[in-house]
Amino acid sequence: MDADALISCGAMTLQFVAEYWRSIGKRPVVANIQPGYLRQLLPLEAPEQAESFTSIIKDLESTIMPGVTHWHSPNFYAYFPTANSYPAICADILSGGIACIGFSWIASPACTELEAIVMDWLAKAMGLPEFFLSSGNGGGIIQGTASEATLVALLAARSRIFKERKVEDPTLTLGRLLDQLVVYCSDQAHSSVDKAALIVGCRLRKIASDADCIMRGEQVQAAIAEDRAEGLIPFFIIATLGTTPTCAFDDLVSVGRVCEKEHLWMHIDAAYAGNAFICPEYRHLLNGIEYAESFDFNPHKWMLVNFDCSAMYLKDRTHFVDAFNVDPLYLKHAFQSSAPDYRHWQIPLGRRFRSLKLWFVFRAMGLDGLRAYIRKHIELAKYFISLIKPDDRFEIVFPAAEQLGLVCFRLKDSPNELNERLLKALNEDKRIYLVPSMVKQKYILRLAICSWLTEEKHVRFAWDIISEVTAKLLSK
Amino acid sequence: MDADALISCGAMTLQFVAEYWRSIGKRPVVANIQPGYLRQLLPLEAPEQAESFTSIIKDLESTIMPGVTHWHSPNFYAYFPTANSYPAICADILSGGIACIGFSWIASPACTELEAIVMDWLAKAMGLPEFFLSSGNGGGIIQGTASEATLVALLAARSRIFKERKVEDPTLTLGRLLDQLVVYCSDQAHSSVDKAALIVGCRLRKIASDADCIMRGEQVQAAIAEDRAEGLIPFFIIATLGTTPTCAFDDLVSVGRVCEKEHLWMHIDAAYAGNAFICPEYRHLLNGIEYAESFDFNPHKWMLVNFDCSAMYLKDRTHFVDAFNVDPLYLKHAFQSSAPDYRHWQIPLGRRFRSLKLWFVFRAMGLDGLRAYIRKHIELAKYFISLIKPDDRFEIVFPAAEQLGLVCFRLKDSPNELNERLLKALNEDKRIYLVPSMVKQKYILRLAICSWLTEEKHVRFAWDIISEVTAKLLSK
């Protein structure tokens, strides 16, 4: 275990990944195996003696690769993208090589400081409000996932309302309060909101979105009024920018105004779409963010930064520190008042040096390069629209003002069951991979541009397959 | 952004890390900078244009390195170790290169399957009870941190008790139940237990440990009786194997028997010490684990696997799935009944291909190699004891039966204030790095063997410094 082995074995691994990238377009995008396949191929117990690194690398192709779903295949159009790039991988090598645990400033100052700096860079590149910069009472932090960001925001909001209500009623218990608390989100919000509400244990009310899948202030206001009339305590809302089913954008301005009036904490989940805000032409979709207490999106989805890297911004960090602060002596240090200790802003204690990934990607790509990358994906989605639109068998559904890199479609005037059979036939064909969604009682197909290898020819290929599989299905 | 750049830039990064490892012993172990140092060195905004990779790597030494606390320096004795090794870094390159998100089996089957297999390997290597193997109702999962494992276990236990109590009283609300629930842990347990209780919102009662810092069943039984008499509902206990302050081991057998009788969920947090259980001579410290519902330790602490990799085992996964299951259409797939979907066992949705790290380390080191590594650290701690023990100025405190790689000491018959001054003088000297702890009103110094580079000569060096700084302090 030494420096020489790192160089030689690392080079072998890089070579393997490079070959993988070069061949990825030729691999079947979805694994063609049955559950339990790997257990047949591997020993039942860990080896007693060390094996050669060559033999480990050799086994990758025969055991692991057959079971991989290739998220970076140019034929992968499922879910939303997950990012990847050589500078982010290099930054991860460095993070692994330094292997410090930056839970407090003193535990490795560069870890905390670089995070604050690159999160400021990112905030400025997107034109976020000043109160999200680290120079004020707020700041940015890298969370693992948008799910964790939602949960953390919800916990901070719970801490705030509990503190406020305790002033009015010192006998109030958290349990009694919890039974009255209401969280709101659109009926289009991500399942991680359900999960966060389940974890915190408060009720979640889903607001009916409009015909374009947009949550609007008027409906939020009505729900709050109803709930207050029943003695409940509305306190938190998640607004989504770029919903998972159709990439719809909640109306931040009208929702935000209601939040201000009704003293609700607004958290914005822009997991996928947030990345586009580095392009000035999409910045207007952020109008209304000035009403938010917290904001999160995933550079690990669409900004060339490998998972995990979820960029969360807080307006007032004291609510977070209040919610999470537990400080034993072995974690205390002399600089606690002059530098942020990110452990108080998150659920885990330990943290990797993840800011290196953002730093490397910003520098190796430049903001210009990142914008070009985002725009290319959006262009490819438009290209797909140009192919499917003239075809009378299909309809494009929920064409929000900005669908970004996602296109939702279905067989025109057809029952859900037929669309479900189409999706099934496409995925059994295995040349491309899509996932469906159910929106407003409609079963829809989602085509999301995901890979950095996707070009027009791949989108054309996807369209040809969709057209061909549809013809076969409809002829039955 | 292509395969060629990955190979060339990756090689540059590996070279940087290799040089770092070669020079780490000569670097000051703790960063010698003031808060805000990095902001003076970096631009205020992200670059518009791409920069060369060479310039990025060049900046590492001048900007980042001065602010790094070197956790792998042979002079680092603070906290507990965090692991590192070349095979784990190579596995991370691979995880980054493949960059699949394994939240469900179908999303990348190899990701789920390899995790189940290597977690079984690990369970067998430690002699864990059969019910923790994936072949039964339980199984292993890689969590990010022990903090998350504690929280996840607590949430599953809350879900179980709520379901049970609802049967007796269908009008029961979660809030009403929460106000009655009690979590127990030793007064020596890690701060992450406080944090988990804070997040879930239930009261935490700390059980007084005995003179050796061990929590015993008798005290737990008494606390439960008191709380039941007050109408509270005891439901969950964290037993710690290898506490952070002194590496004490709670008495699992007596605590476990109480849990069985009183229907409490016992979660075991063995974050650091758990790694030693792959050595048969320490396996007896696990006696009583048969009473546990869940168990967690961190291979990322002491088993050469880079952070993050926390190995959690569940006896019955249905409690977890009950607590976390939210299943929108875009995440459903045809194999849900035949393969585990780890997203229901954890807080985040997304997950990296972390099992590769365990697989690579097991194979590149062999169980024999891992055992040798653990034993070497324990020998080094014993060597430090052999140096300090004959010195009348010091006393070794809380010498539990097995202190593993940690030694706790203080100035004999001295006030806390003097020990605090000693710790401060040592850390201002900056040649070695320790953190203190406060145990039973005693301020103590902790010396934890942390780095894979630490040899007898380094321990000797540490002792010489401690001796020298003490002499200077006492002569004042």
From TrEMBL, chains A, B:
GO terms for cellular component: cytoplasm. GO terms for molecular function: aromatic-L-amino-acid decarboxylase activity; pyridoxal phosphate binding. GO terms for biological process: amino acid metabolic process; carboxylic acid metabolic process; catecholamine biosynthetic process; serotonin biosynthetic process. The modification N6-(pyridoxal phosphate)lysine is found at K301. The keyword DNA repair does not apply. Keywords: Catecholamine biosynthesis, Decarboxylase, Lyase, Pyridoxal phosphate. Its EC number is 4.1.1.28. Transmembrane segments: none annotated. Its cofactor is pyridoxal 5'-phosphate. The keyword Disulfide bond does not apply. PANTHER family: AROMATIC-L-AMINO-ACID DECARBOXYLASE (PTHR11999:SF167), GROUP II PYRIDOXAL-5-PHOSPHATE DECARBOXYLASE (PTHR11999). Homodimer. Belongs to the group II decarboxylase family. This is Aromatic-L-amino-acid decarboxylase. It comes from Adineta ricciae. The lineage of its organism: Eukaryota, Metazoa, Spiralia, Gnathifera, Rotifera.
